[in-house]
Specification:
The protein has 424 residues and is mostly helical. It is 74% helix and 0% strand. It is built from 18 helices and no strands. The longest helix is centred in the first third of the chain and has 32 residues. The radius of gyration is 22 Å and the shape is globular. The relative contact order is 0.14.
Length: 424
């Protein structure tokens, strides 16, 4: 892992630093000599710090805990109803947790340069552990709900800052490492419902207590903040820097649109694939169980595909993943093949969002702010796109749903091609 951090360049973050020396890369014209003289006179920009091994290991442990607790909330609802009484709307705990995560994402985006990025990971870890401990010790429903919101703040902030740190902290291996980080979260998400079932009949609050206890030894994740800190020579001066910031802001638009459509498509597949399987003749229980194949494909894809394509730039792999996903979703429209097609779609699409995060973190002037805005766009897509897919699918049979999903993937592929052209 330390060797990964010393890699010379990241092919997926093709816009993240100075261009390599290439006779064809310098602009041709009368101003090229002056530009060369200015570049020689400018102070050298120090390289961004690499991720410490201890911070990376701690981050993996943190994401495992985040995945377990986040995915366990839904499975915990029957036990929460038994613990606090049927008169409470126990589903509100999931909303409170996610609202806390949304608040953290918005605050990080608004703070931008004013955020102390070195202090952010340890502070957010402490917030998460304190909130989880509060959930475990809560004597009543109101206190439990408030502590769930505090825990969500820690969860959302850690997910955002650690994804950004991994996108910047491994040079040529950043895309692979971001995918691995999110794959670990997926493993935790698969374990979460099992953990809820194991402790639920005793006291479901023990799960939150275990999350708090497991988070505390991960304090070395605070060292990831060094990766987020901008090098001293990074900022420009005067109107030139202001103009560059404006151009970069416009250049981020394709990233945001790809993130919005892709995240909504991923949520739509998870939402509507069971409905298609039922319309295809499966029982409700069998369709629900079979739908887990898509998420299993996502976990495997994030571990395998980035490793196989790590020598290719993100501008090449991103459209490739989407094209493969499009083929799998089209295959799902063939009667009785959806059971195989959706896991294949999960496998193909798995690296899309981590690759996008790594890429946008490399081109943005304030990476944690750009990742925050991208995350907000993904949340918007999660809310809007599944409803649009449902409205277009109607109740006209099993083949309509995968065709609408394939159309959404085609739109995302078109946006990715536009992104590739815009970043040349």
């Amino acid at each position: 892992m330390a060797e990964d951090g010393r890699a010379a360049s990241n092919p997926a973050l093709v816009d993240s630093g100075p261009a390599p020396v290439d006779s064809g890369s310098a602009p041709v014209g009368s101003g090229s000599a002056a530009e060369t003289q200015e570049e020689q006179a400018a102070p050298a920009v120090p390289a961004a710090p690499v991720m410490a091994r201890s911070a990376a290991v701690s981050a993996f442990c943190v994401f495992l805990v985040l995945g377990v607790l986040t995915a366990s909330l839904g499975a915990s609802l029957p036990y929460l109803r038994e613990r606090f009484g049927a008169e409470h709307e126990v589903g509100r705990v999931v909303s409170a947790y996610n609202l806390g995560a949304l608040a953290a994402t918005v605050c990080i985006g608004l703070l931008g340069r004013r955020l102390n990025v070195r202090a952010a990971p340890p502070v957010l870890l402490a917030v998460f552990a304190a909130g989880a401990a509060g959930m475990a010790a809560s004597p009543g429903w109101t206190a439990y709900l408030g502590c769930a919101a505090v825990t969500g703040i820690g969860y959302g902030g850690l997910a955002l800052t650690l994804n950004t740190a991994f996108a910047r902290g491994f040079a040529g291996n950043s895309v692979v490492m971001v995918n691995r980080l999110n794959a670990v979260f997926g493993i935790g998400a698969m374990l979460g419902p099992l953990a809820a079932g194991a402790v639920g009949h005793t006291d479901i609050r023990l799960l939150a207590l275990a999350a708090a206890v497991c988070a505390l030894p991960c304090f070395l994740v605070g060292r990831a903040g060094a990766v987020l800190a901008a090098p001293k020579g990074e900022s420009g001066a005067g109107a030139g820097a202001s103009g560059r910031r404006g151009r970069i802001g416009l250049q981020l638009l394709p990233f945001l649109l790809v993130g919005l459509v892709y995240a909504g498509m991923e949520t739509s597949i998870g939402t509507w694939q069971s409905t298609q399987l039922v319309r295809d003749g499966w029982s409700t229980q069998a369709a629900t169980t079979a739908a887990s194949g898509f998420w299993a494909g996502m976990a495997v894809g994030r571990l395998v595909l980035p490793q196989l394509t790590k020598r290719l730039p993100g501008r090449t792999t991103l459209p490739g993943y989407l094209a493969a996903g499009l083929g799998a979703l089209a295959l799902a429209a063939v009667p009785h093949l959806a059971l195989v097609a959706y896991p294949l779609a999960g496998l193909a699409l798995a690296p899309v969002l981590p690759t996008l995060i790594a890429w946008v973190s490399g081109v943005a002037e304030v990476p944690q702010q750009a990742t925050s805005v991208l995350t907000l766009c993904c949340m918007l897509g999660n809310a809007v796109v599944p409803a649009v897919v449902g409205a277009l699918s109607g109740s006209d049979g099993a083949t309509v749903i995968p065709l609408v999903l394939a159309g959404t993937c085609l739109l995302c592929l078109g946006l990715a091609v536009w992104l590739r052209a815009a970043r040349r």
